Structures are given as C-alpha cells and as structure tokens.
Model the fold of this input.
Amino acid sequence: MSSYTVFARKYRPKIFADVLGQEHITRTLRNAIEQKRIAHAYIFVGPRGTGKTSTARIFAKALNCSGGPKADFDPEEEVCREIAEGRSLDVIEFDAASHTGVEKVRDIILDRVNYVPANARYKIYLVDEVHMLSTGSFNALLKTLEEPPPHVKFLFATTDVQKVPTTILSRCQRFDLKRIATATIAKHLLFIAKNEGFSLEASAAEAVARGAEGGLRDAESMLDQLVAFCGDAITEADVLNVFGFTSAQTVTTLCETIISADASAALATIHEQAEAGKDLARLMSELITHLRNLLVLKADPNGLGDEWMPEAVATMREQSERVTMEKVLDLIEQFAGAEGRMKWAVNKKMHFEVAAIRAIQILQSATLTEVLDTLTALRGGQAPPAISQPMKPAAARAESRPTAASPQPAAPTSRVAEPEPAPISKPRTIETPKVAELPPAPAPKAAAKPEPAPAAAPVSDAAFWQALVEAVRRDRKLISAWLEAGALIRVDAGTVQIGFPPDQAFSKELIEQDHLGFLAAAASAILGRSVKLALELRDGIVAKPIAQPPPEAPIDPMAAFKNDSLIRKALEIFRAEVQPI
Done:
C-alpha cells in the first residue's frame, strides 16, 4: 500500500512550464541556458510558497540532464528523478537552518568543492533558507563563492534577503519571485480538484486563493485540509467555516453599504461577522485591499490584470465609478489608521464601527473643490454639481423608499447650529437642486465666463494673458496664485501654452488636477474660439505680475459675505451657516 502524498508535493512543478506566476524568472533562466551564459551562483528571493526551491531544482535538472544543459529536458529520466527525490550525488541540497555553523559549511561544501562530479556535468549546492547561516559561515564561503571551480554551481533560496550579507549578494545573480495572483491560484486549485476527482466550487477556490495571500503551497495545503473535512464536495461555506475567512461577497457588500451611506447596514454587517467569530482584523485588511482595487481601477481600468476573477473585477469597476479617487484615498487612509489601532485594542468591533461611520461621513462631506465648482455653476446660471446626500438613519431610509403617497423625509440636522427658520433653510432630499428654484444672479455681477470677443478684433498675447488672470481672480480666486506663478508662452489656433518654472511644479499639478477645464473655457471665451490648455515645466520661465485693481471703499467683509446671494444659496445646498472664527 503506497503512502499518501500531499498536494503540495504531488503537484510540485517539474519543468519550467509548470512554474506558476513567475514567467519573468523562468524565461531568464531558459535564455541563459540556450545562450550558454550560465553564472556560477544564483539566489532566489521571495515569500513562502512561491516556488523558490522548486525553481532551483528545475534549474539544477536543466544543468545536469542528459545532453545538457538544456531548457527542455525530460523530467522522468533517471538523473532528473534523482534530483527531484534528493538522491543525486552531484546535487547536494541542505537546509541552512539546520547547518548554521561554520564547521557544517566547511564539511559539506568547502572540503568537497574541489572534487569533480560523480555522474553529471556540474556539482550543484542548493542551500535553502541561506539567510540562517552564521556570520562565520558566510565569511568562510566568500572566497569559494566568488571563484569556484568550473564544475561547481551554487543555488541559494531565502525568504529574508535582508539578513544575507551584501558581500554574498554581490557574488550572485538575484531573482525575486513575486506573490502569485489570486486568479492563477484559483485556476490551479480547480485543476487539482478535476484531476483528483472531487468537486470544488469556483467561489470556494477563490476564497482559498485569497486566504493563501499569494502562496501556492499554502493554498494546496488548505485544499488538502478541506478534502479531509468535506470529502468529495467543497463549497465556499466550507472554506469560510474551516478557516474563518470572510467571503468576497461580504467584503463587497460592506464596501457597498459605505459607498451608499447606509450606516445601519454597515454596522449590521460588522456585527454579523463578529457574532460569527470572524477575525475582524482580517476583515479590515480585506476591506482595505478592496478599496485599493477600486483605486487601481480609477487610475487604470485594466490595472488589476489577472489578479482577480472577471466577475469580481466587474463588481469593483461598478463601485469605483460611483466615488472619486480623492474619496477612495481618504477611505483607505481612514481604515488603515483604524487597522493600526485594532492591533492593540481589546474591543476591535468598536474601532471597526467607528471607522465605518467616519468613512461614511468622509464620503458625504463636501470638499473645497466641490464648493468652488458649485459657486461657479451658480454664478453662471448653470445647474450645480450633485451634492452627496447626508447619512440617514434606518427609519429615514425606510420612509424614503418610493411609494404612491409617501412624503419626502426631513433632512438631518447639520453638525453646526442652525439659525431660526428662514426662507433659505428649508430642507430638501434631492441630490441636485433645480435651477428653476434658485433666484437669478444679480445683474451687476459679472458672468462666470467672459463673453466671446468679436472675431474682428483679435486679442494680443499680453492682453489675453491679463484678461485670463483677471477672469480667474474674479471667478475662482483660490487658483489665481497658482496660475500667476506661470507665464504665457504662446497662443495658436487651437492651443494656449502656459509655462511654469521647475520650482512651481506644485502649482502646475494643482491646476491640472481639477481646474484645467475651467481655464480652457475662460480662455476660449476671451479668444472667441475653442482652445485647449497645455501646461509644461520649462527652464527660464519668469512670471510677470499683473497689477491688482484699485481697492474699493472698506466694507464689512462678514456682512458682505453673508448677504451675497450665491453664498446664501450655497448655505442652503450644504445645510450650513457662517460662523466667525
């Protein structure tokens, strides 16, 4: 009766093509063999279970196979089987954790390194966890490692390369193995299940792959344990119960409740996971990973590659389209801080709940850019951008569901004290105020965008630049200092080119981030034709100051600010009031 072989050993890669997720390494090794550019020492670095030792063994087979070295060898020939089973006299494999002393290194390597191989082309020393060697062992190995006999090759593997002296690293070719993608591990687990004749749900394979955190060996070991527990049919629920993982759907749902400002549902989800005995710290980590994926999709729609299953990526993409990149960054920062506090907290659930509520408040708070855009839209008689609806309690959410005759729910109170009821304080629950409900801007006020100049009167570059600066000072004063840090380079038929000195790169980036469209519209209005803005950093740019208009008679700034019709409408939209500081 043959003994049982665990999946991690049974499905260990035998040739380069079997190595998963490390194509950048296997290709380099194959090319080195085919081009006969084989170094004398290699070190394989990476997390556990990513294939360091397996890749080193495959490389040893390629060097010592019949007719070798060759990249495409037969793994079933006798010399390759000896290497795979650890029986080869010419491939000496040992664990540095068990042979740390200099005496062991001298006995195993230094005293025998000059002897030629018994049967193969090379004598190969494969040292696993090489960082465990003592300082004396490393020092004793230095000279031999730098100038070994031509028949000797060294293959090292380590999970902690920081502990390996730089004098050793400088004598080796270094290969960094990366964590294996979740989708790649899940597909491999489904292959094992099909080959072994048991049923494994795709969602269960993905849950195991996520729990393995990029380590294929860990995933195969967990699959072994699941087969022993569940038998011939493994479901996602089995994976969650055995290992205490949180389902991907739960993480997605929790993120959805936060994006939707549903505080009650978010707290209920956290409570359910805590009552089920789930690790809340792990749930927090997975939520941060989920938000990171949303951020990647915002920056690059194809940025996730094959890290996740296509169905999961589709859900993440839908969520990412409903929140800005700035807000996602704020959420990640909020939950990362809470994760640090949870490590030392007794009541982890409380910290998680507080972080979730604060995250919802972050999503519902208006940024300074949103306030400026709203004011600019109101000044120009346009519909202001949608303002996020404040967080509602469960009862208010139930009342706000569309019914035949259900009234609109009252808006929650602002965090600052509101004045006595006034015409501008009437609450509303719609996300975008209607333009028809707002009084028209006073006639003396200047329009947000300058009227187009007549085509018959072309504008000189100097006059255009002064008009543009004055328009920005009038309509969006916050960014005027950033614009005036640069200078006009030229104006052509379709482009206005503005340059900034290298020390004003920050001003250029701030304008490009949120205000490029406004400036292009203002420039088009001044020139009387549609143009685009091109900003660049250039040496030799000197900003020329534009004279400020003469000061007006002194007035009470607080009174003027409060009485401005646009400020009053902004206070109504954001449900706030002006208070002195």
